[in-house]
Amino acid sequence: MVAEIIINRLAKDLNKTFDYLIPKHMEEDIKIGARVFVPFGSKNSATEGFVIATKEISEFANKEIIKIEDFPLTAENIELAKLMARRYFCNISECIKLMLPPGEKTTNLENRIKDKTANFVYLKKDEDEIELDIEIGKIKNAKHIKVLRFLEENDGIYIQDLEILLEVSRATLKTLEKNGYIEVIEQKIERNPFKGREIVRDKPLNLTEEQQQAFNKIDNSGFNEFLLYGVTGSGKTEVYLQLIQSTLDREKKAIVLVPEISLTPQMVDRFSSRFGDCICVLHSKLSVGERNDQWKNIQAGKCKIVIGARSAIFAPIDNLGIIIIDEEHDTSYKSDMAPRYNAKEIAKYIAKKNDIPLVLGSATPNITTYYNSKNVIKLTRRANNSNLPEVEIVDLRQELANGNRSIISEKLKEEIEKNLENKKQTILFLNRRGFSTFVMCRDCGYTVKCKRCNISLTYHMKEDKLKCHYCGYEMNNIKICPKCKSKNIKHFGSGTQKLEELIHKMHPQATTIRMDIDTVSKKNSHEQILNKFKNENIDILIGTQMVVKGHHFPNVTLVGVIAADASLNTQDFRANERTFDILVQVARKGRKREPAR
User: The pTM is what?
Assistant: First the structure.
């Protein structure tokens, strides 16, 4: 027999299969998805590859497979990898790597993530026998007795914890081990991302009429793509929870995708409160070891619900019953690096393959999704009947005419002051993606745009030029507005850090916390910032898009959007749609019945 093998190499010219003979003793074991090592190249060095097909004969097969390493993939994985390679113009091996356990995507076996182990101490002798030895004086050392008494109450403890708790040395434990009283066993430790998280269990809420209709239409419907189009606060998450409970009742499992890393802890808490510890989470802010353990728990069937960002769609979950994609309009579902896959397209393929419903939820659906959707389910009212926040637009051109050159209007400054007096919280949002700077006239609002693409040009300070990041068009920087001839030209690009400094000057008595790419680089930092804002009642949270997406802070009654129209001028032909999306997301704040602005 012959195996078709894709070589796991980065080189672009290796996006093809190579035929290898299967040794007789391997024929029963070999299957599609197996990881094997084969002689490759002029030196016939052992190289990793994956079996993607088998056949009886091949005129090209003249070398044998060296060994079968393991079986990390299924035939369905290989089929999906082939489809993705055609759809996204990339190598099959690049797609295969998305489906391997985290930490095992390298071809170097020595560098792969390994199980984390530690030494644990257990009693070896019977407790009655130990007590007798202490009584007759066979055990005299006070530290030995102290350790044995402790292990009678706490059998099976991490060796380093025991040393710290009882203030004993490793030599003490070695003596006890030598005399047969204790044994030290190396055990696997599961790297648990939920460790230390307190979860309060809750019960399903009574669904509103609209929510019940949505549930009835989606539940156990077979393959269908549903768009759950609900205003902010309409209770889409409660519909998700009850759909998943129904899925679990049928002994099936669920995948829930969320867009932003900052949403994941909130979603995990909500789901853990309802479903307990049958949840696994996958996202990039976990350590590689934690992700690897979570992946293996899913593979072993220990998890019934997988929650994660884009890549969680490839989780090795079996018996799938529903896929839910929250905030489906979010751009992060499309990978910006090879392979440039769209998680929504992959989800649709998997849902169709498994004949299960795919639910896309959003208050601001992607235009393409909305246009293509045949099953739009609308939630038009908030679940608690609270009002949407009052929205007020302040024209900074008018502010400038009145002498205010700041990016914060006098109206917003006054509202922040009122909130501080009333002990309420404020969120200030600056919709700035990256560090691009665009040029705008402060008098008439004219923005310099590309004459070919009609998107704003980016200012490059070093060359003093304006450039288009789509087509490459460039022009000299302008000093006078071509429209109104004003010299009041401003280079927009002030970030959250500058905004925080400005707030400190305006409201020195206010406590602030900032949430942007600079402050959430460390593990769990996004969760810590949000918890600190909520639990310590910090006055003002300043940040980028991650501060306005779905978080529920009951004490927030004011959201200030700084330069709300600035994102219309980003280097993106979807800028209008994305600006609308994010400004509607801002209206999530203030879900209580008291007025919010």
Answer: 0.77
